[in-house]
């Protein structure tokens, strides 16, 4: 998707490079829009934070001197996050992106204190007149991965390294399991929680333990390439998280879920520059390009590739939904009735497991 700079923005950019005379006085040049980014991990995680950092770079490339960006990495979810967000808001930033679920409450508190600043929070659900929410339908990519896993796995066991048991993570695991069990009804997903978004040591150890327990597929909702590196060393397969990790595991990676925030960030910066920014809640996926899939690895068979493409194309076309009933939880209760699809509200509150998940 391409974005065109409006005439108003062009004139603003021209003004920033010079001054004009009005009523015999010099008018100060317009300052560039300052845009801040708060990251939960390091920009070199090659996962979640790396994806947001690439989008920040896309903003810089697109707008040039019209913007001035800054970022703070490795910000813990808690009091430290509120301090960092407030510092950005009080130091002249007109737009601040906070990029982790645990930043939600701190962002809300700071947004109320700085109504003149625009805030954007990733993966949350609380909005304010000056606070918008954006999220990606990662579960769609999990369904594509599950379809591949069902065809590739010999043991019928996937080891899944998970961060925290929040709905976003739960729905991703369930979507993966449902897609895999469409291919192989006895497929099992064994989950290990590491209680961190990014901890290469714990992630690697979890992958080793899961492989020792019989998993020949490794998936993850954590941010480092460590699980895939273990998979490469142990001769099993896996999926990258948030960005293409094939360079770390050229034989192991089957594909990866890619988070592409660039178009969204460019749109929202443009809206601030144009003075058209409004709060909203969006949840985009494969159709909008916010979720993408990395190229398939050499180990992906023709059958697995066809299943993955059919899943992806069906989701984009709206003819396939990963949570189409009948779906029961592990107690045998019908959670999604036959012929119905889960609503966004149901998915965003998901706290139950489908059959085949051991968490």
In words, what does this structure look like?
With about 350 residues, the chain is α/β, with parallel strands linked by helices. The protein folds into 2 domains: about 30-135, Response regulator (Rossmann fold); about 140-255 and about 290-359, Response regulator (Rossmann fold, 3-Layer(aba) Sandwich). It has 11 helices and 17 strands. It has helices at about 5-15, 50-65, 80-90, 105-115, 140-150, 165-185, 200-210, 225-235, 260-275, 300-315, 345-350, and strands at about 20, 25, 35-40, 65-70, 95-100, 120, 130-135, 155-160, 190-195, 215-220, 235-240, 255-260, 280-285, 290-295, 325-330, 335, 355-359. A hairpin with a 2-residue loop joins strand 1 and strand 2. Helix 2 packs across helix 9, helix 3 packs parallel to helix 4 (about 105-115) and helix 5 runs antiparallel to helix 10. The two termini are about 40 Å apart.
Provide a concise account of the structure shown:
The protein is of the alpha/beta class and 359 residues long. The protein is built from 11 helices and 17 strands. The protein has helices at 7-16, 48-63, 79-90, 104-113, 138-152, 167-183, 200-212, 226-234, 262-273, 302-317, 344-348; strands at 20-22, 25-27, 33-38, 67-72, 95-98, 118-122, 131-136, 157-162, 188-193, 217-220, 237-242, 253-259, 281-284, 291-293, 327-328, 334-336, 357-358.
């Amino acid at each position: 998707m391409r974005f065109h700079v409006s005439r108003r923005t062009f004139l603003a950019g021209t003004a920033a490079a010079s001054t004009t005379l009005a009523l015999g006085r010099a008018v100060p040049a317009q300052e560039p829009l300052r845009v801040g980014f708060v990251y939960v991990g390091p920009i070199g995680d090659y996962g979640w934070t790396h994806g947001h950092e690439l989008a920040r770079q896309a903003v810089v490339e697109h707008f040039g001197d019209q913007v001035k960006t800054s970022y703070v990495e490795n910000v813990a979810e808690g009091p430290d996050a509120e301090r960092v967000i407030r510092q950005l808001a009080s130091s002249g930033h007109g737009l601040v992106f906070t990029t982790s679920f645990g930043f939600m409450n701190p962002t809300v508190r700071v947004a109320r204190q700085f109504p003149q600043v625009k805030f954007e929070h990733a993966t949350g659900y609380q909005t304010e007149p000056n606070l918008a929410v954006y999220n990606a339908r990662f579960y769609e990519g999990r369904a594509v991965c599950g379809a591949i896993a069902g065809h590739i796995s010999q043991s019928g066991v996937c080891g899944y390294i998970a961060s925290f048991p929040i709905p976003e993570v739960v729905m991703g695991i369930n979507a993966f399991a449902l897609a895999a069990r469409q291919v192989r009804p006895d497929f099992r997903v064994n989950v290990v929680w590491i209680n961190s978004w990014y901890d290469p040591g714990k992630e690697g150890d979890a992958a080793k333990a899961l492989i020792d327990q019989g998993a020949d597929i490794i998936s993850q909702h954590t941010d480092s390439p460590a699980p895939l590196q273990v998979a490469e060393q142990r001769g099993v397969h896996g999926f990258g998280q948030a960005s293409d990790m094939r360079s770390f595991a050229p034989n192991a990676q089957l594909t990866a879920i890619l988070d592409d925030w660039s178009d969204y960030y460019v749109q929202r910066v443009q809206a601030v520059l144009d003075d058209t920014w409004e709060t909203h809640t969006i949840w985009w996926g494969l159709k909008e390009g916010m979720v993408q899939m990395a190229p398939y690895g050499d180990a992906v068979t023709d059958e697995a590739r066809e299943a993955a493409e059919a899943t992806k194309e069906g989701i984009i076309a709206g003819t396939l939904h990963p949570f189409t009933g009948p779906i029961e939880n592990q107690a045998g209760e019908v959670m999604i009735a036959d012929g119905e699809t889960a609503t966004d509200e149901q998915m965003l509150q998901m706290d139950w497991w489908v059959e085949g998940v051991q968490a």
